[in-house]
Amino acid sequence: MILDTLANSKKYHAVHPLFAAAFDYLSKQDLSSLEDGKYAIDGDKLVAAVFTKPAKTAEEANEKFECHDRHIDIQVCISGKESIGWKPREKCTQPKGSYNPEKDVSFYADAPQMYFGMEPGQFVILFPEDVHSPMIGEGALKKMVIKVLI
Question: Which residue in 2, 38, 96, 136 is deepest, having the highest Cβ count within 10 Å?
């Protein structure tokens, strides 16, 4: 997991071959005026989803404590204050159902090891080994999630 501000995003271009294109796309957007919806950045290799939804309690979010096998998430806070639960996959011991290859998601019944916060202008990069429960907070949260194909 990497947590930082968009102002520092160039530091992470070398981490994955598609990160430069993802962060370049982000730098060219007026995030606050983006409509909710899906945006193709580079075919199926880089796809962004923007959404505005009511925040969840930690208990509600932890019902979908999730991770992905074929994608890295770059999650960007656009408005609101969001908390995200996190735990390393290697320490998760309670699978909840089986892996869904169509949605590229696995769920766990484990509790997060920690929570961290994000405010507008911050992002988190979540790798397949990062089990996470996003959208914790109050009021409405607007965010962008870029799915980076591994």
Answer: 136
